[in-house]
Amino acid sequence: MDFATQSFSVEHILPRHEGGKTTLENLVLSCQGCNNHKYAKVLGIDPITEQTVPLFNPRQQLWQEHFTWTADSMMVIGLTSVGRATIEVLHLRELREDKTPVGCFDFSAP
User: Whole-structure pTM over 0.85, yes or no?
Assistant: First the structure.
């Protein structure tokens, strides 16, 4: 992927210590930053409802049902409690000093 700022690693959706298996159904590629933030978490808190909800599972859920992009395509927006909690856990709303998003992708690349 040309815009990735970090290499990808294999992440267990359900952590092994919680019974997650090393099978295709439980593995996903993740940038190291998101992998570090997720660590062994399977739940997050929706910042709007303050409810604890499961994190987004890319093997069982559709991205477009839980997320969308801002009009300038620079930031991800959570459409559901699952989407918002996942954004919070993965720190997808952090900004650099120059106000560009921190995350998996470098959107300043041509």
Answer: no
Strands 27-31 and 8-12: antiparallel
Domain span at residue 50 reads 8-90
What DSSP element (H or E) covers 38? helix 32-38
1-23 b/e (C-beta count within 10 Å ≥ 16 → b): eeeebbeeeebbbeeeeeebeee
Domain membership of residue 18 (yes or no) is yes
pLDDT tens digits along 64-76: 999 998 888 778 8
Query: Count of domains in the chain?
Result: 1
